[in-house]
Each structure stands twice: as C-alpha cells, then as structure tokens.
Amino acid sequence: MTDRITEADDSDAQPRAARGSVKTTQILDAARQMFTANGFGATSMDAVARLAGVSKATVYAHFHSKENLFVAIVQHECRRLERALPGSEDIDTPVAVTLRRLGHRYLAFLMSAEVLAIHRVIVAEAARLPALGRSLFQAGPATMRTRIEAYLARVNARGQLVMEDPALATQQLLALFRGDMQLRCLLDPEWRPPPGDVRRQTDAAVAMFLKIYAPPAPPDNSR
Q: Other C-beta atoms within 10 Å of 199: how many?
C-alpha cells in the first residue's frame, strides 16, 4: 500500500479515532512529530507506524490515508481551543468579558509551539497540495470562525452589538487579535512576545472592536 496524494475527506478524517483508543493517541503523537520534523511530503506512513509502535495496516485502518491523518492532527489541536469559543451559555455574560477571554486563549493557542510547527508545515505544502490545504482550513480555522460568527450573530440579534455582516466582523476581530504576533513567531522561532503583550494586544483589540460595533447611545431626553 502506497501513500496516495488525494483530497482529504474531512468527514472521514477520524473514522475510528473517536473511540479514543491508546493506539489512536500513539499514532497521532507519532505523526505530529514526523510531520513537524520532516514535513508532509517526506513523512511516510511506514515511518509513522514505526514511531507509534504499530503496524502500517493499523495506521491505515484508523485514518485511511496520510492526508486524513494530517487533517486529524489539525482537528485534534483545534479541539484544545474549543472550550474558549463562546457558546449559548455565554449569551448573558458581558460581551467584553467573553471576547477578552476568547482573545487571550486564541492568541496563546496560535503561538503555542505545537500549533506554530503545524502551521509551518501547512504553508509549506499548500502550493503543492492545494486540496490538502483546503481540507486543513475547513478542519481548523473555518470551524472555529463559524462558532465565533454564530456568537456574534446572537449578540447582534439581541442588540448588544450592531453589525451588518457578522461574518466580516468575525474576520476583523480575529485579525485584530493576531496583529503581527503570530507572523513574527512563525518567521522567527526564537522570538516570543514580552510578558503582558498578549493580554495588552487582545484587550486593545476588544476595545477597538466594541467601539466600532457598539450600539448607538440612547438619546439624552433630560434637556
């Protein structure tokens, strides 16, 4: 069985991984190490199987293809951020509090060593394997953006914010959070933001975002 370059199928990226087996964890850990050290193209399923201590047939039984295995790694990493994404339970929390909490965790997630390493591999392979790049985008960033957009749409419907296009507002918010910190970390592995800068940047991003989309002040009828 050879490593086939095919478009990854998000719905099948973890056909058996949901079982949470020890072997699945071993395979994901080994694959993450191999992909981030050697890149996607130079990593074989044989090498992943050897490092994981399982057979190549077991790797294919869990993930079906190298592309699906890589997508599963991205999904696994993104699940670490899921608890920070706003949901229906946050609707009664002040918007500023919810967005600041999201920003702090989102930026810390993006600049973690594991996520930066995976990001570098994705960028390196996207031009050669655009179908894989699209699958990875849908598995990670697009899913998170959809969750945040849904929250903004809810607070917009309640009049807590006023925006014509929650999808565009979501993109703007995430861009404000990132600034140039993520890019600097990607290009210079030795650079880390000074203490306090992540919180300062995300707090400023929320303040700017709310200034743009805050509802108009009620008229002053006291005069």
A: 15
| CATH superfamily, with its number, for domain 21-64 | Homeodomain-like (1.10.10.60)
* Residue 72 structure tokens: 């599963």
What CATH architecture applies to the domain 71-213? Orthogonal Bundle (1.10)
Read off the pLDDT of residues 129-177 as tens digits, 9 standing for 90 and up. 888 888 888 888 888 899 999 999 999 999 999 999 999 999 999 999 9
Distance, in Å, from the CA atom of 115 to the CA atom of 208, rounded to the nearest integer, reads: 27
The model scores a pTM over 0.90: no
Provide CB contacts within 8 A for 141, sequence distance 6+. none
Identify the H or E element spanning 16: none
Among candidate residues 22, 25, 12, the one with its CA nearest the CA of residue 65: 12
What is the Cα–Cα distance from 129 to 19, expressed in whole angstroms? Answer: 29
Please provide the distance, in angstroms rounded to a whole number, between the alpha carbons at the two ends of the chain.
81
